[in-house]
Amino acid sequence: MKEGCPVYIRDVNGETTAQFCRLANSVLGTQYPPESFEAAPRGHHLLYICKVAVVHGEVVGGIRAHSVADGSSSIVPSAMYIDMLAVSPVWQHQGIGSILLEQVELLCRECYVHVLQLHTPVNNTAAIRWYVDRHSFVEGDVVPDFYLSTPMEAGRLSRDAVLLSRVME
Ligand SMILES: CC(C)(COP(=O)(O)OP(=O)(O)OC[C@H]1O[C@@H](n2cnc3c(N)ncnc32)[C@H](O)[C@@H]1OP(=O)(O)O)[C@@H](O)C(=O)NCCC(=O)NCCS
């Protein structure tokens, strides 16, 4: 971590929601509207987490995840699904992404959820390697046109996504 720059992990709130939205859109090349980052999704899921990493009052990273159920239990979700993880380029490679991921892992452990899942574009090679090599995720099926309805910067990231999963020990 950069010397003298403490990183605080906070629940997203009114003030930081817009910053997280801008950061995610610029890092991922998406154009999600700020409304999609507001509290609404919370009510739709048994478990929901949205945390940001803050340095000197500025959001430098964030993660958002929600539970998914496969119908086998109405009490314990079958997995947590990470639908957003982004760290500002100047703050990458300093452990912030891993700290944010740990927040989701902690919630999983507290709530007896043993599987983490996410999709990422098939050509997002650096992120795929990060999840697989550093965080023990396993590559699964490719979903063609997964991001068809996602407003994305043309050409940079593929619309096809790969499923990454990890069974927690
Ligand atoms: C993928 C992503 C979230 C990783 O975030 P990050 O903060 O850079 O991740 P970390 O710092 O925890 O780990 C990255 C590297 O830094 C190194 N690192 C970890 N802690 C460190 C520290 N304290 N000091 C120096 N280096 C450190 C790790 O060894 C790791 O190396 P490696 O992955 O090259 O082997 C980030 O690159 C990102 O936002 N990418 C673009 C968006 C994206 O693709 N999101 C995910 C798909 S939805």
UniProtKB/TrEMBL annotation:
<protein>
    <recommendedName>
        <fullName>N-acetyltransferase domain-containing protein</fullName>
    </recommendedName>
</protein>
<feature type="domain" description="N-acetyltransferase">
    <location>
        <begin position="7"/>
        <end position="169"/>
    </location>
</feature>
<dbReference type="InterPro" id="IPR051556">
    <property type="entry name" value="N-term/lysine_N-AcTrnsfr"/>
</dbReference>
<dbReference type="GO" id="GO:0007064">
    <property type="term" value="P:mitotic sister chromatid cohesion"/>
</dbReference>
<dbReference type="GO" id="GO:0016747">
    <property type="term" value="F:acyltransferase activity, transferring groups other than amino-acyl groups"/>
</dbReference>
<dbReference type="InterPro" id="IPR000182">
    <property type="entry name" value="GNAT_dom"/>
</dbReference>
<dbReference type="Pfam" id="PF00583">
    <property type="entry name" value="Acetyltransf_1"/>
</dbReference>
<keyword id="KW-0012">Acyltransferase</keyword>
<dbReference type="InterPro" id="IPR016181">
    <property type="entry name" value="Acyl_CoA_acyltransferase"/>
</dbReference>
<keyword id="KW-0808">Transferase</keyword>
<dbReference type="GO" id="GO:0031415">
    <property type="term" value="C:NatA complex"/>
</dbReference>
